[in-house]
Design brief:
Helix content: 10-25%
Number of domains: 1
Radius of gyration: 20 Å
Strand content: 15-25%
Strand order of the largest sheet: 2-1-3-4-5-6-8-7
Order of helices and strands: HHEEEEHHHEEEE
Structural class: alpha+beta
Number of strands: 8
Number of helices: 5
Length: about 240
């Protein structure tokens, strides 16, 4: 999952448009001079529709493999199955030995109501363990099929509502520790973190409460499940995150 998060960030993603402030002055103050700054117009969403497919493709298969492996330390990613995205979808470029799957997710991993859903710059390296590869990854791969079929966002929304999404398997877990990812225009690379997928509400782990070690949680693909995010100190290459 869009599906990135820095341990010093309390929010996964901020909106990309400034709010338009409407000031309604009381009648008694109507004649007073208004020194408030002028209202800022709402910025239009530049990602209303899918970009040409070429914008989402990697420069080469080798580059995609390297970026996918950067999601986790070599002790994990060196023996993981590597999926590569091309015009046909995702295919296995490297066979795995340890049950993990590493890949680079695109923007359609994001929540369906996010402005970045069609942002072609998004690249999210992620490595999923065997439980997450079986129960979480298939939903993302299904979304990719819809995208390649040139489905519009309303059709994707309808498909997502109709899709029977399984609960994440017990122990489903993923790693996102790449320096090279691009999570969103207002974030850039995500800070190093790990994710736990559970079929419980966020409150079960006290996520987001003041002082809680679980600073953030978001709904998973199923809706009733939750993705819990926990920041870690190091990038996948072993260097400290600043």
């Amino acid at each position: 999952m869009k599906p990135a998060i820095h341990h010093r960030r309390a929010r996964y993603r901020s909106g990309c448009a400034a709010a338009l402030v409407i000031l309604a002055a009381a009648p008694a103050l109507a004649q007073k001079q208004d020194h408030s700054p002028p209202a800022r117009p709402v910025s239009p969403n530049p990602y209303k529709t899918m970009a040409p497919l070429a914008a989402y493709l990697p420069p080469s298969e080798a580059a995609e493999i390297a970026l996918a492996r950067s999601a986790a330390p070599p002790s994990i990613s060196d023996d993981a199955e590597i999926l590569v995205f091309d015009a046909r979808g995702h295919h296995r470029a490297v066979a795995g030995k340890n049950g993990w799957t590493c890949m680079v997710q695109r923007s359609w991993n994001d929540a369906l109501d996010k402005p970045d859903f069609w942002n072609s710059k998004i690249r999210v390296p992620i490595c999923l363990n065997s439980a997450a590869s079986r129960s979480v990854l298939p939903v993302y791969l299904e979304r990719t099929k819809w995208v390649l079929a040139k489905r519009s966002l309303p059709v994707i929304l309808a498909n997502a509502k109709a899709l029977r999404v399984p609960a994440p398997e017990p122990g489903a877990f993923a790693i996102m520790m790449s320096k090279q990812g691009y999570l969103a225009d207002d974030i850039g690379p995500a800070g190093p973190h790990v994710m736990v997928y559970l079929d419980v509400p966020a409150s079960a782990w006290a996520a987001g409460l003041p002082g809680s070690p679980i600073g953030m949680a978001l709904p998973g693909y199923k809706g009733s499940d939750t993705v819990f995010y926990m920041g870690v100190r190091k990038w996948s290459d072993g260097t400290l995150a600043k």
